[in-house]
Amino acid sequence: MAQTLTLQTLEAENQSFAGTGGISAANRHYGFAPGFLDRETGAVYCSCWADGTPAPFHALDGLPDHLVLARNPRGHIIAIKPSVVAGFIRFGHFYTREQAAHCLE
Fold this sequence. Notes:
This protein has helices at 7-16, 24-27, 97-103, and strands spanning 5-6, 33-38, 44-46, 68-71, 77-80, 84-90, 93-96.
């Protein structure tokens, strides 16, 4: 079963992919932008701040409400559906962290 995506799981993913093309800091110069894929629907979302401007890394606050499972008392998203995975968008195609890392090996 898929794990709910939270800020903590995003940080753990960043640690797991440190030193590879699976993190934003390592791949943005190659045209990768942080994004999310809902595996349930196939919909892809760019990582954005709450106001809709693009975020330079995986930010949850710009995701649509139908993906949100929980918010903190200040209204910030803290958990999204387990069907959503973090990855990257490049030339209109979604890449998982693993795929992005492999592309830049």
